[in-house]
UniProtKB/TrEMBL annotation:
Residues noted as binding Mg(2+) in the record, renumbered to the chain: D11, D13, E171, D172
Gene that encodes it: pgmB
CDD domains according to UniProt: HAD_BPGM (cd02598)
Binding-site list for substrate: 11-13, 27, 46-51, 54, 78, 116-120, 147
Family recorded in the similarity comment: Belongs to the HAD-like hydrolase superfamily. CbbY/CbbZ/Gph/YieH family.
Example of a GO MF term: sugar-phosphatase activity
Annotated source species: Paenibacillus psychroresistens
Keyword Cell cycle among record annotations: no
UniProtKB keywords: Isomerase, Magnesium, Metal-binding
Site (Important for catalytic activity and assists the phosphoryl transfer reaction to Asp8 by balancing charge and orienting the reacting groups): S116, K147
Lineage of the species this protein comes from: Bacteria, Bacillati, Bacillota, Bacilli, Bacillales
Cofactor dependence: Mg(2+)
Official protein name in the record: Beta-phosphoglucomutase
Cofactor note: Binds 2 magnesium ions per subunit.
Any GO BP: carbohydrate metabolic process
EC annotation from Swiss-Prot or TrEMBL: 5.4.2.6
Length: 211
């Protein structure tokens, strides 16, 4: 179905685990502190986007202008709240079929990388007890450019020792799908075909690929 590939690169949020609800709680809390309403519809704009860029979007929604120093403090505050929310995560939070598909790939000799904007990715993988299923972890601590820039996926392929055309990307966000395509990789979108129009193939979850 997906053809031959030697490497698989996975986004974290919305693909392996659903941390979107925890991000929403933290951003919503921050918006309330700033005196405006942040909805789940607004939250869709933050999917697959770095923390700093997400804050810029949030401030734009609230029509608030702040100094760079204040922005940095708010970004750190949001992350502090988010970390509090995810500290108690465990393996039960893994999305259906995700662990099984990762193991299936490993058993077939496919190299696996994480390609996430999250700076908390290592902690989340540890909490989920699936760190050992990844050959390479590229997160927000490893990159300087946010999706849709292809940096995270190009770096992932490089660390795996593979050419971009030998890799396939699994993403749930439009910005991530675009990043994968710009990297010269095939992309499997996880979610809605209406949102992930650039993806080569769209599924509702990794459970569809297990077997």
């Amino acid at each position: 179905m997906l053809g031959n590939f030697k490497g698989a690169l996975f986004d974290l949020d919305g693909v392996i685990v659903d941390t979107a609800k925890f991000h929403f709680l933290a951003w919503n809390r921050l918006a309330k502190e700033l005196g405006f309403t942040f909805t789940e519809h607004h939250n869709e704009r933050l999917k697959g986007v770095s923390r700093v860029h997400s804050l810029e979007i949030l401030l734009d929604i609230g029509r608030i202008s702040l100094s760079e120093e204040k922005k940095q403090l708010l970004a750190e505050l949001k992350n502090k709240w988010y970390v509090e929310y995810i500290t108690d995560m465990d393996a039960n939070e893994i999305l259906p079929g995700a662990k099984e598909y990762l193991m299936q790939l490993r058993n077939n000799g496919i190299k696996i990388a994480l390609g996430s904007a999250s700076k908390n990715a290592p902690m989340i993988l540890e909490n989920l007890k699936i760190t050992e299923l990844f050959d390479v972890i590229i997160d927000g601590n490893s990159t300087s450019k946010a999706k849709p820039d292809p940096e995270v996926f190009l770096l992932g392929a490089e660390k795996l020792g593979l050419a971009p055309e030998e890799c396939i990307v699994f993403e749930d966000a439009a910005a991530g799908v675009e990043a994968g395509k710009l990297a010269g990789m095939r992309v499997v979108g996880i979610g809605s075909t209406d949102v992930l129009k650039q993806a080569d193939y769209v599924i509702t979850g990794l459970f569809e690929l297990v077997g």
